[in-house]
Design goal:
This protein has helices at 7-17, 38-53, 93-98, 133-147, 149-163, 172-176, 178-195, and strands at 59-63, 77-83, 101-107, 113-118, 123-129. By secondary structure, the protein is an alpha+beta fold. It has a single domain (7-195), classed as Beta Polymerase, domain 2, CATH 3.30.460.10. It has a 5-stranded mixed β-sheet with strand order 1-2-5-4-3. Strand 3 (101-107) and strand 4 form a beta hairpin. Helix 4 crosses helix 7 (178-195). The protein starts with 6 loop residues before the first helix and ends with a helix.
């Protein structure tokens, strides 16, 4: 995606991958204190997804800030789902739509990523193919933040600062976090290599 500060290029790039066109933000980005119900909300949604797709679910993980105990977050449960081939939409799309999920983003150039929104739930469901390296990165990021106070604090401060800015689109907020996420991921990956994991 283009630089979120280069408005024209960003608008074009976002429109290219967003189904139904990008939607402008209608209010501020809300970062809430950690809520202990978030893991249960994930488990309920995971059970629903498994009920819809059955053995087509290769991997399902709670990721994002709501998966890190104690971390403030947007009150949206981020879930990563791996299916055999995320580009093979007939494999899973009809059943997901029938269950009320809405396909919002299709990014064939970025790991064949698909993003569904829950129709009546605050859910971001990221779909990738089996053994996608991006799934591994999301899980490593989650696990690192769960165990590293300094980076959890850094990420929290960054999120709060970026959430206070005026954005045209919600997607600009996560895109603006790229630098700090890359910085934190470099430490997480270095630690994993030292431990031989």
């Amino acid at each position: 995606m283009s630089d979120p500060d280069d408005v024209v290029a960003y608008d074009r790039a976002l429109a290219k991958v967003t189904i139904g066109g990008p939607q402008a933000l209608t209010g501020p980005i809300e970062i809430r204190d950690y809520h202990p119900a978030w893991p249960a909300l994930y488990l309920r949604e995971a059970e629903r997804i498994r009920g819809v797709l059955g053995d087509r679910v290769v991997r399902l993980e709670h990721v994002g800030s709501t998966s890190v105990p104690g971390m403030p977050a947007k009150p949206v449960i981020d879930i990563v789902l791996e299916v055999l081939d995320s580009s093979d939409e007939p494999l899973y799309l009809p059943e997901m739509e029938e269950a009320g999920y809405v396909l919002r983003i299709r990014e064939p150039d970025w790991f064949e990523h698909r993003l569904f929104k829950g129709s009546n739930r605050n859910v971001n469901l990221h779909v990738f193919s089996a053994d996608c390296t991006e799934t591994g990165r999301m899980v490593l990021f989650r696990d690192w933040l769960q165990s590293n106070d300094a980076d959890r604090d850094l990420y929290t401060r960054t999120k709060r600062a970026l959430a206070s800015r005026n954005w045209k689109y919600l997607q600009q907020y996560p895109d603006a976090k790229t630098t700090v996420v890359t910085d934190i991921m470099s430490r997480a990956e270095a630690s994993r290599q030292r431990l031989g994991a």
